[in-house]
Amino acid sequence: MSEFDISAVNSRISEESAFVDDLLREISKVVVGQKYMIERLLIGLLGDGHVLLEGVPGLAKTLTVSSLASAIGTGFQRIQFTPDLLPADLLGTMIFNPKEGSFSIKKGPIFSNIILADEINRSPAKVQSALLESMQERQVTIGDTTFPLEAPFLVLATQNPIEQEGTYPLPEAQVDRFMMKIKVGYPSRDEELEIMRRMAKTGDKPTVKAVVTPKQILSARAVLNALYIDERVERYIVDLVIASRDPEKVGLGALKPLIEYGASPRATINLNLAARAHAFLQHRAYITPEDIRSIAMDVLRHRVAVTYEAEAEEINSEDIVQRILDTVEVP
Predict the structure, then answer these.
(1) For the segment 121-160, what is each residue's pLDDT rounded down to a tens digit?
(2) Alpha carbons 117 and 128: distance in angstroms, whole number
(3) What is the distance between the alpha carbons of residues 135 and 111, in angstroms, rounded to a whole number?
(4) Full set of structural domains in the chain with CATH
(5) pTM of the predicted model, to two decimals?
């Protein structure tokens, strides 16, 4: 890339990413801390990839997602997944009008821009499949009519890791459709104090106003393609993914019996997209290995399956991904 090209792209990225700081500032009016989760949601939004959030109740997952939608001024729907939910409750259905003797289509809550699928593992496989098909195809079929879903379309699904009774775990092949799996942690002591001071009040609570338009988000997505990524950085992405499938190639033969199967090609694609979005959030026109390392755990943790032997040794997928990150040579 010539110096002129880099200068032009830098200028464009600086202009296009100006809204990021305004967006983060607006969301922080309502959400205390959780910067990591907010940035990952923005990476999913910019990279056009869905996000799976895992964390105990009360960590502001729902509040953060609804605040993000409000700050963008876009459609938002929260769907509470329950064992008795049906695909039609999600997608919509055909309704018969006896007066006219004809059917009309009633669209479901999936027809919005940002969808919060709350406790996705509480509903049976047929409902999960209906949601996951919409995520993948970006369209919904009701009767014999197919409707495209309006962009931006982002599914943010939450699951509670505590309770296993009465839940339907997402199959590994379906989890792979999520760009990232984010583990949401507890706030720090100071953040907890601020949460108490801000929220332990009756009456009016802080609200978020729209500071960004959906058009700006779609424009920013197009700009991600202009970011510069060196061939060595591209090879680093591929090396990380291949190491999860064949750890012996990077001198991690001891991991071989611990990995049931490694990351799919979707991991390679999503590592690239998420790294671009991460660089964009930093107002940079190029991708560094540090961008890859920052988002690698979120992109890979749900794509590496461990064996029974690993479980017996209390080794999880995160331990394996961390070993790979520590071993694969950084360009």
Answers:
(1) 888 888 888 888 888 888 888 877 888 888 888 888 888 7
(2) 10
(3) 12
(4) 20-199+211-218 (3.40.50.300), 227-327 (1.10.8.80)
(5) 0.85
